[in-house]
User: Which sequence fits this backbone?
């Protein structure tokens, strides 16, 4: 899953490593869109109810359901499968929050009955507006990520010449400390024999490394899912920042799409750009029959749902919780107001009001994720 927050280095968890999508690169290099106010004069706050959850970086103010902009317009049948996945994990966890009771009630509700789903949430959950404790602001950065999907092969061919590597066999049990940076790794020969797949585009392969996971469509129709296996423990350096420093691109081009376009125009400099990031990510083949449509597992341990899962700062709110998100679509003033589930996390996701929005798998999702860097608001839903 890739995020712009750093074009981006993600977490070291087997999640989709949220590098949320590049936001690809650069948190802070694109102009954020502001969220338009959609509250009408009839909206009102509820009396203050103390949140059963405390956070060192976020504060929570109880509000009414009428305070959620776009709540009535959201098709909750689309969010329901993601909530049931959260329940699958939350039932197994010991928590001061009474997830088990609300999840037990969810099992009796039809996923096709939008009215019943709305009544379920409104009857069993209290809404809390989330604010950043340090600033008191009720808005923050919303980026996007996705799961790369590429054509490839498990053997080198005339078309597929770019390897994706597992952990070097020589490192099993004794990884060097410090481990070599990317340039030295690629020239040392230590990676030989650790190839697990071959793809066509070196830049797309690098983006998959930043993302930390992805799918490879093989020529026989099978789908190979690759998960995060580790790194060389070197610091992450942004491709976008490297290009900006050399005035190769401007800030409006500091996106996954802009970097890819630069690489196509400058094939002779691609390796130098890739070596500017000393970090190297290794993959492992994940077992099981993989559907091209099935999302990768997030930090919660359940498959992510396109446009209904987010990555959050674990210091801000509980993993698995329902969250109402109000922001805008990438490079647009069109509102994006949805019930989502906090099912993932990532190193680049820092702050009380901060989310990485999972767009799904493949190129179309990547286009949206790579351009998303919006202002947004969040409301945490907790059992009454």
Assistant:
């Amino acid at each position: 899953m890739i995020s712009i927050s750093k074009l981006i280095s993600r977490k070291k968890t087997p999640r989709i490593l949220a590098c949320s999508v590049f936001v690809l690169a650069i948190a802070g290099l694109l102009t954020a869109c502001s969220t338009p106010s959609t509250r009408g004069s009839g909206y009102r706050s509820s009396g203050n109810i103390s949140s059963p959850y405390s956070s060192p970086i976020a504060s929570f103010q109880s509000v009414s359901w009428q305070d959620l902009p776009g709540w009535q317009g959201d098709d909750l049948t689309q969010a329901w499968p993601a909530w049931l996945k959260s329940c699958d994990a939350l039932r197994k966890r010991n928590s001061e929050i009474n997830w088990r009771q609300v999840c037990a009630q969810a099992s009796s509700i039809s996923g096709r009955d939008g009215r019943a789903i709305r009544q379920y949430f409104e009857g069993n959950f209290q809404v809390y507006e989330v604010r950043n404790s340090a600033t008191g602001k009720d808005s923050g950065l919303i980026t996007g990520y996705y799961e790369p999907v590429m054509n490839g092969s498990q053997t080198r061919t005339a078309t597929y010449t770019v390897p994706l590597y597992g952990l070097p066999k020589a490192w099993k049990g004794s990884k060097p400390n410090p481990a070599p940076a990317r340039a030295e790794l690629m020239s040392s020969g230590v990676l030989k024999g650790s190839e697990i797949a071959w793809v066509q585009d070196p830049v797309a392969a690098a983006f998959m490394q930043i993302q930390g996971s992805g799918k490879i469509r093989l020529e026989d129709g099978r789908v190979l899912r690759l998960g995060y296996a580790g790194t060389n423990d070197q610091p992450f350096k942004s491709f976008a920042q490297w290009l900006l420093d050399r005035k190769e691109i401007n800030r409006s081009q500091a996106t996954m799409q802009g970097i890819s376009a630069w690489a196509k125009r400058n094939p002779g400099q691609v390796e130098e750009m890739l070596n500017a990031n000393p970090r190297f990510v290794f993959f492992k083949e994940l077992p099981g029959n993989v559907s091209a449509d099935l999302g990768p597992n997030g930090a919660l341990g359940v498959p992510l749902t396109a446009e209904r899962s987010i990555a959050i700062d674990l210091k801000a709110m509980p993993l698995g919780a329902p969250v109402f998100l109000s922001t805008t679509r990438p490079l647009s003033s069109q509102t994006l107001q949805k019930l989502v589930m906090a099912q993932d996390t990532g190193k680049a996701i820092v702050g009380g009001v901060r989310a990485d929005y999972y767009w799904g798998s493949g190129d179309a999702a990547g286009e949206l994720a790579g351009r998303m860097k919006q202002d947004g608001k969040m409301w945490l839903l907790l059992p009454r």
